[in-house]
Write a structure and sequence with these properties.
The chain is mostly helical and 323 residues long. It has helices at residues 23-50, 57-86, 93-126, 131-134, 137-163, 180-186, 192-225, 230-258, 267-291, 294-306, 309-318, and strands at residues 10-13, 90-92, 172-173. Strands 2-1-3 form a three-stranded mixed beta sheet.
Length: 323
């Protein structure tokens, strides 16, 4: 059956391991990871949306980060989990297209968002008196629109370049989802130009974001070192520590996967590294970056208190009270 110039109408995703005795363990492991990622990011997304105490640009960006993490994990894990249950590792051609698009879409925008968040921390620490005028609601909205447009262009470019290639007899993807490099390995035509496009796009996007993030943190460190009190320095560094951890994991994994010579490609190593930025990092984001935050904990307590059954009953009965 021919699909968009390809002889392949479906792909077989081999997964992290083909050993039968590992299937139950992997299912339980990734089910737990997905539930934790989904729950943690949903909590942050809801809190940043409904709690007035978190109605600031910082938590607006955190909520957006949680939304992207939900999209990222949902693009890969449900299909993986269903494969363990049904014992079918088949994904349709168009399903593979959609999986690659939404995965690269969420990851590309997250790369840009982490850069914006570093700049946000620089303004908050370096120019606290002007923070409200520099990073206001209009600016946040404009930034969001821009990074979503850039992320969509990036994802469309990768998806188009990958699936314009013909795929012939071999349809077994040596990965746990439809990723660019494993798909290029299956193409039955020369992929040199595709690899150049992928490398160039990721190099420009990755290096620019990495450079801007480093510039923001160089100013942050310079400002923090000028603070005289040790307590003030610790407080300033604590607001950036979680972001630095997430950025380090994210950039390290992405650079290892994409920005390297063709001869060094090893798909077995790629699967482990891809799990870092596709599954582990989105799961750790709400824990490392948000749930350890005192303001987020207080917002969670306030929200739970408002949803207490007794309080709900009082609010519900008040509707029927006479005016």
């Amino acid at each position: 059956m021919k699909t968009n110039g390809s002889l392949v109408s479906e792909f077989i995703i081999l997964g992290l391991s083909t050993r039968p005795e590992m299937q139950t363990f992997l299912f339980i492991l990734f089910l737990i990871i997905y539930v934790v990622a989904l729950t943690g990011n949903l909590i942050i997304l809801i809190l940043s949306s409904v709690d007035r105490g978190l109605n600031t640009p910082m938590y607006f960006f955190l909520g957006l980060l949680s939304f992207l993490d939900i999209c990222c994990t949902s693009a890969t894990l449900p299909k993986m989990l269903s494969g363990y249950v049904t014992q079918s590792k088949v994904i349709s051609y168009h399903g593979c297209v959609l999986q690659l698009f939404f995965f690269t879409w969420s990851m590309g925008i997250e790369l840009l968002l982490l850069t914006v968040m570093a700049y946000d921390r620089y303004i908050a620490i370096g120019h606290p008196l002007h923070y409200g005028s520099i990073i206001n609601r209009r600016v946040c909205t404009n930034i969001t629109v821009v990074i979503f447009i850039l992320g969509s262009i990036n994802s469309l470019t990768h998806t188009y370049c990958t699936f314009k290639l013909p795929y012939c007899d071999d349809n077994k993807i040596n990965h746990f989802f439809c990723e660019i490099m494993p798909l290029l390995k299956l193409a039955c035509s020369d992929t040199y130009l595709n690899e150049i496009v992928v490398f160039t796009a990721d190099f420009i996007l990755g290096i620019c974001c990495f450079f801007l993030t480093c510039v923001s943190y160089s100013f942050i460190f310079s400002t923090v070192l000028k603070i005289r009190s040790a307590a003030g320095k610790r407080k300033a560094f604590s607001t950036c520590a979680s972001h630095i951890i997430i950025v380090s994991i994210y950039y390290g994994a992405v650079i290892f996967t994409y920005i390297r010579p063709r001869s060094s490609l090893t798909l077995e190593k790629d699967k482990i590294v891809s799990a870092l930025y596709a599954i582990i990092t989105p799961t750790l984001n709400p824990i490392i970056y948000s749930l350890r935050n005192k303001e987020v904990k207080e917002a969670f307590r306030r929200t739970v208190k408002r949803l207490h059954p007794n309080q709900f009953n009082q609010n519900f009965l008040s509707i029927f009270r006479p005016l």
